[in-house]
Specification:
The structure is a homodimer of 123-residue chains. Chain A is of the alpha+beta class. Helix content of chain A is 32%, strand content 34%. Chain A has helices at residues 37-48, 76-84, 86-99, 116-119, and strands spanning 21-30, 54-61, 66-73, 100-115. In chain A, a hairpin with a 4-residue loop joins strand 2 and strand 3 (66-73).
Chain lengths: 123, 123
């Protein structure tokens, strides 16, 4: 990470290394009611951060609307490992059955990244 | 897009074609106050959708917290074209100066995608 970048001020923003790395873009619509979702989501963020190859995670949900969580990983093997984690698999199953009216997962390869401090340079 | 996918029910979720394509992941922390942001953000979504190569856009912001907007594009040239759009350039400049305390932009290549309907198949 370049010195002088202001990311450290904002704990919700991931402090990823220079690309290349991978991003898993998880877009979802919740079903009604909590049904244990909030605590499970917090636990999954905690558990993801302990996995090999984890680089960071960012999450946002508009009230009553779309949620987007992006997790960053060093390689595809790390993403497969996290998908296969037993506790995570149980949460995935509950997600399909209970928490999410719909969702979509996209696996992508991050090629370039720039921030507020560096964008004026024409990156 | 596969038939039988339930995405049409949820207007906030992008209906993208099968990969490969590109995703621009825009993560941001707003500064305080609207300062014309909401109307400009709506205008930028409208304008983006008119650009060549645009495939879709998804956006979420937690109250008082992180915002994530992911736009999908057919190729890198389309992303460069949108970045260079004059009206968009003006909004980018106001974003840097006024609307965003911090932000980060990641350009990524989407390699795989699956949804609630297809995820049970082990994708």
């Amino acid at each position: 990470m370049k010195s002088g970048e202001p990311d450290e001020t904002w704990p919700g923003m991931a402090r990823t290394p220079e690309p290349p790395y991978y991003a898993v873009i998880f877009t979802s619509m919740r079903s009604a009611g909590d049904k244990g979702y909030d605590s499970a989501a917090a636990r999954m963020e905690e558990l993801a951060a302990q996995q090999p190859g984890f680089l960071g995670i960012e999450s946002a949900r508009s009230p009553g609307g779309l949620g987007i969580t992006v997790s960053y990983w060093s390689d595809l093997a790390s993403i497969s490992g996290w998908k296969a984690n037993l506790e995570h698999r149980s949460a995935q199953e509950t997600g399909r059955r209970v928490w999410y009216a719909d969702y979509r997962i996209r696996i992508s390869h991050v090629q370039r990244a720039y921030g507020k401090a560096s964008s004026a340079l024409g990156a």
